[in-house]
Amino acid sequence: MCRTNDDLAPESARTIRHNLHAACYKMSTMRILIIEDDQEAAAYLVKALKEAGHVADHAGDGETGHAMASSADYDVLVVDRMLPRRDGLAVIEALKQEGDQTPILILSALGQVDDRVKGLRAGGDDYLPKPYSFSELLARVEALGRRTRPADAETTFKVGDLELDRLAHSATRADQPIVLQPREFRLLEYLMKHAGQVVTRTMLLENVWDYHFDPQTNVIDVHISRLRAKIDKGFARPLLHTIRGAGYTIRDDAR
């Protein structure tokens, strides 16, 4: 549910209310990571994004931000350039080298043309100089989010008695919690998005690992085996199936 507070931002309360209420109807919930060392600015952004109906996490330095971005799935990253422990551009370059395709909005007090060009060439998808208006930041974040997900993207999936909540990053089967590592969660999410369909190894490499080549390893087999043990072990009816020579599918065969 979207809510607004009159003391939310330096903009007028009326403008904030108008922008946030409009956003509620136009954009589904996103998960956003803010990498910002200014604690006051970060707290404001987290609060404002939550008021706009999104889920927001915060990292206060470059090293922590890189670790969080690498270990969880985000729809958009908001990255300050000048960060302690690791520079913002270095974080962005490292993520891109790892194959992370999450859209990135760079925030910086460095707003000259050369600064913006450098940020975009490092891997940023958009650049917003400080000081900024929250309504503009929100519009830019949501525009980035729309590039990689449909406006009506589902946030929960269900196959038989197996359920996955994308926003809560949780999964259950028969109401029993399943503890998943980030890559296992991403794998299960992708399979459940395509429930009943055969998902090929190439599809998994490109959409779960962000590989656009065959790494010639058994990484998929290992993760499928681990995932199968977590979601099917102890249940009479398996949900995760291997289709020999084709790929994998998740489906409920109960009739």
UniProtKB/TrEMBL annotation:
The modification 4-aspartylphosphate is found at residue 80. Residues 154-252 form the OmpR/PhoB-type domain. Coiled coil: none annotated. Residues 31-145 form the Response regulatory domain. The keyword Transferase does not apply. GO terms for molecular function: phosphorelay response regulator activity; transcription cis-regulatory region binding. Gene3D superfamilies: 3.40.50.2300, 6.10.250.690, Winged helix-like DNA-binding domain superfamily/Winged helix DNA-binding domain. Keywords: DNA-binding, Phosphoprotein, Transcription, Transcription regulation, Two-component regulatory system. GO terms for biological process: regulation of DNA-templated transcription. Residues 154-252 bind DNA. It comes from the Bacteria. Pfam families: Response_reg, Trans_reg_C. InterPro entries: CheY-like_superfamily (IPR011006), OmpR/PhoB-type_DNA-bd (IPR001867), Sig_transdc_resp-reg_receiver (IPR001789), WalR-like (IPR039420), WH-like_DNA-bd_sf (IPR036388). PROSITE patterns: OMPR_PHOB (PS51755), RESPONSE_REGULATORY (PS50110). This is Winged helix family two component transcriptional regulator. The lineage of its organism: Bacteria, Pseudomonadati, Pseudomonadota, Alphaproteobacteria, Hyphomicrobiales.
